[in-house]
Amino acid sequence: MPQQTISWAAKADVSVVLLLAHAAATLFMVGLIWFVQVVHYPLFARVGVSGFTAYSWAHSRLTGLVVGPPMLVEAATGVALVIGTPPGISALLVWAGLILLAAIWLSTALLQSPRHTELGRGFSHTSHRALVTSNWLRTVLWSLRGFIVLWILAEAMGRA
């Protein structure tokens, strides 16, 4: 069977799809994290103590359905961009974006997830305040990622 080679055009198409998927996932998460930070998390304090535990567990389960797929796409495409940085794209930007993404995931695991676990046992002003305050880290990091992704797209468009 003859060996198939991927033409330059096909490689370019793969790069375009990769960049667009990465940008879409990142920019989705940027918008979502700002909504969560400014609207959603502050409103936790208004749910009420009696129904908060059920609300908190439902929130965590349903939020996972919304954020899971784009976070996985963002991570997979971020790693793919580091492994095979398209021509004309700054490797430094791609690496910076991946490092920021690793910091976001660490923040989620070490700061926000434990606060959600605490809140799942019942509303606590201290845990709520810690969640809202620590989530500013993810908000800033994802916003920086958004700027990096837009810069990468600008570089990609400049070579087209």
Uncertain spans, ≥5 residues at pLDDT below 50?
A: 5-9
Number of extended strands: 0
Helix content: over 70%
Q: What is the C-alpha radius of gyration, as a whole number of Å?
A: 19 Å
Can you offer a commentary on this structure?
- The chain has helices at 8-43, 49-83, 91-120, 125-158.
- It contains four helices and no strands.
- Residues 5-9 have low confidence and may be disordered.
- With 160 residues, the chain is an all-alpha fold.
- The protein starts with 7 loop residues before the first helix and ends with a helix.
- Helices cover 84% and strands 0% of the residues.
- It is elongated, with a radius of gyration of 19 Å.
- It has one domain (15-158).
